Amino acid sequence: MTFRELLSLYQKGKLPKEQQEYVESEIEKHEAISEYLYDDSELPVLENAAPSEKNEKDTKQSEDFTRLIRKMIRRAFIKMGVTVGAVVLAAVMAVTCFFPDIVASFYYDPEKTVGYPSYATKTTQMALDLSVFTELFLPSTYRNDVIIDDEGYGNYHISIPETLSYDGKNTTVSGKLEKGKLTLYDPNLLAYPASNAFVLPKGAEGYYSMGAAGTAEEAFARLQKLDEYDYYTAYFSLSELMDYESFYEEFGLQAQWCAVHLGKTTQAVLGMSTGISGSLMDWDREAYPRLCLLDSKSELSELIEMPKDAQIMQTHFLSMLSYMKDHPETMALFGAGELPWGDIMRYVNEKGLTVYGFTVTARRDTILEIAQNDMISYVYTKPFR
């Protein structure tokens, strides 16, 4: 009987006590040398030992046992190598394929899909946020298109193209979004208007006679010094508060953005566009009706008529306020502080949509022509670019 057969019977517990003790002694004897066998194909001590006739049988059994142990050790090391390799490969794949997405999930995702316009180009989270924020806060700076390059780990390279140009030049502002923090290479894109760019009508809450261009006389005098061919953004203040319908009848064809009167609820300058151009948008209309004037589910004729309807525009303005209230991360993204959105919404619901000023981006002669209207009490201008 070979030693392999003895070992098999030993493992099954079928050996007599004497043979069992013999196998155990052999295992113990070879246990000390087994750790060297995995890197030496043959043990010199086993090769050079010349068995005597007396222990020839024992030597053969020892050699059989040695080969068996060697084979088992090699097999164990192969299995361990395969297992370790698989674990390392899985870890590398997880790090390269899944870990960037896991990290990114903890931060603002500009590529999140919030809707699909009818022509199948999706509306992303940042495009919708940019649309609402720029219309509400930034006169004549509306943007609703963002090109996003995902770099992983919550980092993105972004480009914000200009979809509407007043001077025939289209510019694209680039930047980076790193773990929820936005940095634009031209920060002027998100520059707020001067807090006193508009002057409220006399008797209105918050009235102050001086504006960003000095007194009214100084402001009108400065218009004559404007360059004839350059473009300017002009902030026209009204001599009295006007309901939206009356305002649009008087200035709707000229105004590009109007400032909404909000009483004492805030000193922030908030308003809305009276006619914009850009990409069609899709969003949750049940939660935010009329949130965007560029509604992908509206006919072109309806889009043209929307700014004329005071009720539609009030719904539009309130939806923008509601959206900002529900998305504080949008305010944080663009570096803005929180506002009392609830108070502002209640004021608009109670008082309706009233306008105290508007903006126009144009050349000097157009600005001078509008300034001659008796309803204009103040004009502040700044270069368009």
Topology of helices and strands:
Blueprint: H1 3-12, H2 17-31, H3 44-48, H4 56-104, E1 113-115, E2 123-124, H5 125-137, E3 147-152, E4 155-161, E5 172-178, E6 181-184, H6 216-223, E7 231-243, H7 244-251, E8 257-260, E9 271-273, H8 300-305, H9 310-326, H10 328-333, H11 341-351, E10 354-363, H12 364-371, E11 376-383
Antiparallel strand pairs: 1-2, 3-4, 4-5, 5-6, 7-10, 7-11, 8-9, 8-10
Helix pairs in contact: 9-11
How would you sum up this structure, described in words?
By secondary structure, the protein is of the alpha+beta class. It folds into 3 domains: 3-104, no CATH class; 113-188, no CATH class; 193-383, no CATH class. 41% of the residues lie in helices and 17% in strands. The protein is built from 12 helices and 11 strands. The protein has helices spanning 3-12, 17-31, 44-48, 56-104, 125-137, 216-223, 244-251, 300-305, 310-326, 328-333, 341-351, 364-371, and strands spanning 113-115, 123-124, 147-152, 155-161, 172-178, 181-184, 231-243, 257-260, 271-273, 354-363, 376-383. It has a 5-stranded antiparallel beta sheet with strand order 9-8-10-7-11. The chain has a 4-stranded antiparallel beta sheet with strand order 3-4-5-6, covered by helices on one side. Helix 9 packs antiparallel against helix 11. The termini are far apart.
